[in-house]
Predict the structure.
Amino acid sequence: MGCAKQETTYTIQGEWEGGDGKVVYLKKDLGDKKYEILDSAIVANGSFKMQKPMGDVDERILDINGSTNIVILDSIPIHVKCVTVKKTVKGIVTNPILIGIVAGLVWSALKIPMPAIPKKVISSIGNVATPMGLMAMGATFDIKKAFGKIKPSAIAAFMKLIGLCAIFLPIAVKLGFRTDKLVAILIMLGSATTVSSFVMAKNMGHEGTLSSSVVMLTTMFSAFTVTGWLYILRHFMLI
């Protein structure tokens, strides 16, 4: 006699401030812009929960107020946090990275002298910021969730490494930028996405899977794409 296949249970729970009475849907993509509703939950007291037995681990679509998110259903609980516009604006204003940039600009504009000890401390913190960010990103990286968002990650990486350069480099050339100035524009447009994007996403309450995937993809392929853009610019004797 064969053994019966053991079913696992998926759990999707989330918070949606101001979403009471609205419905969250779990859908299956049937192709040709057609979907099958597999599960749903009504938001009550700012939260919702879906929990059912499932067969094989598979990719599904979570529809929240018309915004679709790809999720991988398995035995690991999925937690979703729906952020309102007000909360998003608050997250931007209180983001420590942006606060640091503004504080630095104000300090520089006022030409306030920097004492030696604080200057050394800030320099040391700056040197470890990127490695620490990469370590945090690597420690929280989930390869299953990353594969679930491979399409938007690939599109974002393509736009960062190729799309932006293809759009704005010809404009820069038309405006008369050449040699080192054009190279600076290329690096600004086509270099890898920095780990600070992952840190900002986490600070604003997002999971960070998409941002970490984009950082990884752009870091892997930027060596090839930047080299290609440099070859093209040199071929046309622009640098």
Notes: The mean pLDDT is 85. The CA atoms of residues 9 and 67 lie 24 Å apart.
